[in-house]
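Q: Second attempt. The first request was missing the SMILES, so the protein and zinc ion are both included now.
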Amino acid sequence: MNGYTIKVAAGDYELSEHAEDERQADRIPISEVEHALLGGCILENYPDAPRGPSCLVLGYASDDCSFCGGRVTERPVLKACWWGGQLLALVDGVPAGVCEQCGERYYRAAVLKQVESLLQTQEHFRRIEVPLAEYTAAG
Ligand SMILES: [Zn+2]
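A: Got both inputs this time. The predicted holo structure:
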């Protein structure tokens, strides 16, 4: 947790009247504001802003799929790892959040760093052969 998330988690923060008016006009519950702040990341820092130190945070109001709103559940997946259009490897058992509705996958940053590390060492890699065919139109 960084400084702002500690304050949000403890409820030790203030909303300006303007921010509160906007929140109410857009019908955004406080719980969604806090969820977005607690799970978000700081995009820009403004330590010397005229009204005091502030930052721009990117966060989402829920853990639901940001594309379709479907429920996202955690499960291991077979991840194809591409680099510049070249398939480097398949990594099995990668933990991901998978949308039950549209299938979109969400990977935690720490998981992607571990996958990248595995690809660099290539320890315990097995080779598999996969049949490859060229598509031809039916006729
Ligand atoms: Zn989805």
